[in-house]
Amino acid sequence: QVQLVESGGGLVQAGGSLRLSCAASVPPFSTYAMAWFRQAPGKAREFVAAARWSIGSTYYGDSVKGRFTISRDNAKNTVYLQMDSLKPAETAIYYCAVRRGTYILSRRTASSYDDWGRGTQVTVSS
């Protein structure tokens, strides 16, 4: 099991930026895929971004394309989510997830991932 700890959440005004961090117990490049999801109260967990480091590919949810960026720091075993131009509707708990296997059925589906962090709260005020 991979341990994941998110940090960097907080309160930000609409249009502002935040950078979330996900500290992993293994190097990001050793995983099959890593992802960020978010969940607002009363809503389903939503795909935000994912990465397959071994092939240098990143993927984004339609609503965040061009504003969010997933990246990694192998030396720190950390994955980041840079979020710009934030909107109030993006208020949610943001979770980091990892797929440890050798394939993934759907990188945009929460059930495809093996391990999860506890999340970090992001609140965007209007």
Descriptive keywords:
126 residues, mainly beta, seven-stranded mixed β-sheet
Any overview of this molecule?
The protein is mainly beta and 126 residues long. 0% of the residues lie in helices and 48% in strands. It contains no helices and 11 strands. The strands form 2 sheets. Strands 2, 4, 5, 6, 9, 10 and 11 form a 7-stranded mixed β-sheet that branches. A 4-stranded antiparallel β-sheet has the order 1-3-8-7, with no helix packed on it.
Number of distinct beta strands: 11
Helix percent band = under 10%
**In one word, what is the shape?**
globular
Which oligomeric form is depicted? single chain
The arrangement of helices and strands along the chain is EEEEEEEEEEE
Low-pLDDT runs of 5+ residues are: none
Number of separate helices:
0
Mean pLDDT: 95
Main structural class: mainly beta
Strand content: over 45%
Through-space gap between termini? 39 Å
Rg, nearest Å = 13 Å
Largest sheet: 7 strands, mixed
